[in-house]
Amino acid sequence: MDSPFWAELPAADRSAVDDLVRSDHRLAAVKRLREAFPDDSRPGLYEALDVVVERYRELGQRFERYPTPPLSLQTLTQKVEALPGRPAAIEALWDGDTDGWYVYLMALTDDPAAEHPLASIRHGSDMRLFNGTVPPWPEAQEATTVGRALAEHFTVPFHFTSPDEPDLDAPRWRTTL
Predict the structure, then answer these.
(1) Which of 41, 53, 87, 134 is buried deepest, with most CB atoms within 10 A?
(2) Distance between terminal CA atoms of the chain?
């Protein structure tokens, strides 16, 4: 590894960073690497991230997130059947993190009033935006297909306000009643 920061990192901190990488705790690995240095010589966030990405490669780990496995209607049906109370709706909504966008599939109940996460669906990182492979958003397509089938099974509405593009401010099902 060519990084001067890695070369200067004490052996115990190298081992700790590598353990975090093997456990796929990227941000914790960046934090540990940065905190191993005094303030006046601490690597910047992007420099530390570059080191962690290289550690992933050298340790044979995949830095990019794997797509989530395809959803099973049978498994999701069993999850909904195990909920306290009957479902009032099935809802899909966007969320995002440092890896990119994904869709949550949720069951909403009225008695008790609650939201129950069923699955999160991710089909790639935000690099897709730069290389032109989205839209369409495959995670939205999967959430729509499975969410509708699940809603039909329980004869409840399916709600996904923004299937064509990520939108954190899209209206929720309960607010559209």
Answers:
(1) 87
(2) 57
Question: How many residues belong to the chain?
Answer: 177
Strand partners, 102: 95
Where does the pLDDT of residue 173 fall: very low under 50, low under 70, confident under 90, or very high at 90 and above? Answer: very high
Task: Give pLDDT tens digits for 26-64.
Answer: 888 889 999 999 988 899 888 888 888 889 888 887 766
Q: Which of 115, 65, 48, 58 is nearest to 85 (CA)?
A: 115
Q: Which pair of structure tokens corresponds to residue 26?
A: 């990227």
Rounded mean pLDDT of the chain? 88
DSSP letters for 82-104: TSSS-EEEEEEEEEEETTEEEEE
Spans of all domains in the chain: 4-58, 73-176
Please state, in angstroms and rounded to a whole number, the distance separating the CA atoms of residues 160 and 144.
7
